[in-house]
Amino acid sequence: VGMFKLSDYRMVFKVGLIAILMGIVLIGIIGYMATRMSAIDEAYLDTIQRVDASTTSIAQATRRAETYRAAAYALLTETTDAGNARLLKVTQDNSAQVLETLGKVKADLPEKTGELNGQIEGFKKAIAACTPTIEYASTVTTAEENAKAAERMRAECELILQASVASQLKFAEDLNAFA
């Protein structure tokens, strides 16, 4: 009844034993790498499906906010009723789309709810400040009345709207870095 001595076996058996041991270790490493790669794949899939789509949506919302602002200022030079009605509709549609888009992003990125609530409230304040001036500007057709509307726009709306749009741009940049 003897002890197991490796020296009693032939070289081929010894090399085979080493090869089998390396194969078992290699299978273990491959299995570990596969599970780690799967976790990385899931994280990137989350980034692509949720965060990347939200970043694109935020960029669209910011573009719509800029369109809202541009249409509001275009009202200050419009002298026809048809043009005023068209530009008023553009401001109304874009303000609604901005709020809708921010709401969707908020649902997709619950970890950014606090920041998005700030964006939504900031834009709502800008709309509340600008709506009376925009509605007034949409009713005037003479150069003198447009000048009065421009003064109101500068006094009541310009700073808060500019701050809201700048805040959205900053948030878009931050979200891009987050992704």
Structure description:
The protein has 179 residues and is mainly alpha-helical. Helix content is 85%, strand content 0%. It has helices at residues 11-74, 81-108, 113-137, 143-178. Helix 1 packs antiparallel against helix 4 (143-178). The mean pLDDT is 90.
Number of DSSP helices?
A: 4
Main sheet characteristics: none
User: Which band does the percent of strand residues land in?
Assistant: under 5%
- List segments where confidence is low: pLDDT < 50 over at least 5 consecutive residues: none
Radius of gyration: 31 Å
DSSP strand tally: 0
Structural class designation: mainly alpha
Q: What does the average pLDDT come to?
A: 90
Shape: rod-shaped
Quaternary structure of the protein: single chain
Helix percentage range = over 70%
Q: H/E order of the elements?
A: HHHH
Distance from first to last alpha carbon = 67 Å
Which key terms come to mind for this protein?
single chain, 179 residues, mainly alpha, 4 helices, 85% helix, 0% strand, rod-shaped
Write the layout of secondary structure elements.
Elements: H1 11-74, H2 81-108, H3 113-137, H4 143-178
